[in-house]
Write a structure and sequence with these properties.
It is built from eight helices and seven strands; from the N terminus they run βαβαβαβαβαβαααβ. It is an alpha/beta fold. It has one domain: 3-Layer(aba) Sandwich (Rossmann fold), CATH 3.40.50.720. It binds NADPH dihydro-nicotinamide-adenine-dinucleotide phosphate. NADPH dihydro-nicotinamide-adenine-dinucleotide phosphate binds next to α1 and β2. InterPro entries: KR_dom, NAD(P)-bd_dom_sf, Sc_DH/Rdtase_CS, SDR_fam.
Length: 256
Amino acid sequence: MIDASTFRLDGKLALVTGSSAGIGLALARGLAQAGATVVLNGRDAAKLEATRAQLAAEGLRVHASAFDVTDAAQAETAVAAIEAGIAPVEILVNNAGIQRRGAFHEFATNDWADIMRTNVDSLFIVGQAVARRMVTRRRGRIINIASVQSELGRPGIAPYAASKGAVKMLTKGMAIDLGPHGITVNGLGPGYFKTELTAKLVADETFSGWLINRTPSRRWGEVDELAPACVFLASDAAAFVNGHILYVDGGVTATL
Ligand code: NDP
């Protein structure tokens, strides 16, 4: 029996990393609009509090937990505090991520390390802190934010593309290991969306022209268009969807 409750998240707590801005903020808003209580995250506590206040003013149930997703001790402390102070984390969205661009042979070692720490290590760090607790409860949903860049070779983004390739395979591996414990792990793969992360590309008319021509839907994505797919993956409707990467990309991956 399918009704509106199939897609509702009432009574569930979701932790969305990197949700003080951009895609994470849109996903957090969507999950909260679907009924979840949402814990927002980012490193900048003031920015995070401003976002929390904004969503609270929209009538949504939101909390804030400022921590760095690349720091295992901070993540463990934060997850323990959320579970003790609010509720068990039933939905984890591993969204925090960064992008740096440059030719492979000129790429700074520090930038490589930052990308890998933020985009890949964080899934292991926050994912493990939450999954260990989900395993004891025998339920949970983990959604990792992937990217079309794991499929699409482009100049100047080799480290970022490699990090998202790792996200893709980590998602599948996590699904295989956590599935027997009642947990699903899926990826949500955005195409090109206008956020801080892509601000320079949006301003670059040559790139924007290429992108619009390359995308069957002939436009950039709006971040709010990602939220329904995230709600779906977190909801009862997706109970048997596991280890899948759902691309929301205006058809970019269909052309590969
Ligand atoms: P933004 O730069 O707009 O936002 C990034 C968010 O992550 C901010 O809230 C930031 O807050 C937080 N963040 C960054 N580093 C950390 C950290 N170490 N610990 C905790 N929070 C952190 O990025 P987008 O919204 O564009 O990207 C979000 C995700 O979507 C990323 O994984 C990205 O790779 C992916 N993606 C984006 C696409 C796009 O077109 N925009 C396309 C495909 C994938 P603070 O700085 O305060 O920590």
